Amino acid sequence: MVTVIRAAAGIAMVSLSLPAAASTTLSDTRSVGMGGAGVASANYLTASFHNPALATQNKTHDRFGMILPVIGARVYDGDDLHDRVDAFQDLNDQLASNPDLEEQWRAALLDLDNDRIDGDANIGMVIAIPNRVVSTNFFVSSNVTAILTTDIDESDLENKEIVNSNAQGVVGGTVDIGFTFAKEFIFLDRDLSLGISPKFQQILTYNYQDNIDSFDDDDFDFSADYVDKSAFNADLGAAYALSRNVMLGLSAQNVFSQSLKTNISNGTQATYEVKAQYTAAFAYNHPRFTVAADVDLNSKQPFKEKSYKTQFARIGFEADAWRLAQLRLGYIHSMTDYADDVITAGIGLKPFGKFGLDIAAMYGEGDNYGASAQLVFHF
């Protein structure tokens, strides 16, 4: 388990060291292509990532399915903070031998105040065995969030010496290993599916802080300094077929709140929090296309000490070509000021019916790019 999240954390931290990388909402690649929507539109294979109740949504010919693996990453650095930190450090090295750079040095330092880079990464897999009694999935899902922030102390501007101005990188993530169980009932002459995903959860955190003149992302040492703990958690879900084509969905992920403090780095520490996330959704499913919309009912603030929080509304579209290929489009609208809107696109290829490859990409203003990919097997 630790190996899985180390890999995901590595992706997130490498992403933060680049000027651009990936998404705003990550789970399975199909949903990434559809703007992250999935609480009412996921299939039986991807239900464990969105809404456990949808594990009942298999076709009559589906007997066994597998996603192995799904992988994705994203980072947002809209103001080129990484490059500006490098530029300031170059100026700082030159200042001692060239006093004429003093005003330029002050301006470059002040320009770094209260800035941020944030990123996410995920790795996962699913094995699904649908049936009429209780549809069952086994899943592994690793999700990591990383945030880099800068804090400039104005006293350093006058002293021309970096004493209190700093940069801090924090990482928090979970590895979920669990089973999804879903059952379909008749309610008011319509199909009602209820699902639950009890899961063993490994939580890991990491913190690295240093003065802004010496901060170097190459010094991140997650494998040596991370803090971890184990917990039990669960996801709950419901899906109601309002008509033959219309599905309503409601999910609650991580219903048991958890928190974990990071390691101490230069006297600083952060608290990673795992709290319940509630999402309501709608989907119109036609044999040839699907239209879906998800709305987060509450915001998510991964680190207690950081004001950074996210909440999204998502819309997605998928067109199916005789089950051989699928074209996907989506749009993610940020409901907070800490993220930007993103457009997404993806394609699914199943030329032989049993085996498929899904890929997706996303784009937003500034340095906001992303990608996701997964291999899918149906039997």
TrEMBL record:
Pfam families: TraF_2 (PF13729). InterPro entries: Put_conjugal_transfer (IPR032811). Gene3D superfamilies: Outer membrane protein transport protein (OMPP1/FadL/TodX). Residues 1-22 form the signal peptide. Keywords: Signal. This is TraF protein. It comes from Photobacterium gaetbulicola Gung47. The lineage of its organism: Bacteria, Pseudomonadati, Pseudomonadota, Gammaproteobacteria, Vibrionales.
